[in-house]
Amino acid sequence: MMSPGTRQGEKVYADLKEAVLSGRYASDTELSIAAIADDIGTSGSPVRDGLHRLYGERLLQMGPHRGFRVPSWNADALRDCYTWHGHLMRMAIKAIGPKALREPVAPEGWLTDYSNPDRIVATAERMFLTLANRSSSNELVAAVANAGERLRTIRLVETERWSDCADELVSANVLARFEPGSRLLEAIWNYHRRRIRAANMLSESLKSRL
């Protein structure tokens, strides 16, 4: 059983993580431990511990004076992360092999509400994680989960710039269920290549959005 202090620390960490992943803090924002602690009504210690954990997960960067700041997605960093995520998914799909999956890889199946940007982003993240899980590699699952979290804010920008993000997920579901292997591999790589090529536009859109 967790002690009260541990429970408080976990709650602060979870709240901080949600704030960072939801885009509540603008990119390149310097995070003040004292200001955050005052805002949520706690001491600085659990906030500092939570920020250190997020830094370890690469969801924050080290700022000046040993503080923390929200990462800024410049085009080069964005291309790098999309390429990394694409390579991870290629490894997962190759590990799964050509055997057809018996159900859609999006967790909610065909009933997902694709009209809501938050749902589109959540479904994309979990769909890729589902494919990674089918690879039976715990390391691959952990890497895909982390990359998905880091890309969450920029994926919201994708839904604002492109009207067919939901269609991409539907197509991936169809291919995963009926034509996995090379066809699914090609579709997933096209998904990533589109974003790699649009990294400049997406980076600038994020800056104007925040």
Automatic annotation (TrEMBL):
- What are the entry keywords? DNA-binding, Transcription, Transcription regulation
Instruction: Name the source's superkingdom.
Output: Bacteria
Q: Which InterPro entries match?
A: Tscrpt_reg_HTH_GntR, WH-like_DNA-bd_sf, WH_DNA-bd_sf
Q: Does the keyword DNA-binding apply?
A: yes
SUPFAM superfamilies given in the database record = Winged helix' DNA-binding domain
Q: Per UniProt, what is one GO molecular function of this protein?
A: DNA-binding transcription factor activity
Protein name (record): HTH gntR-type domain-containing protein
The record places domain HTH gntR-type at 12-70
Per the record's keyword annotation, is Transcription included, yes or no?
A: yes
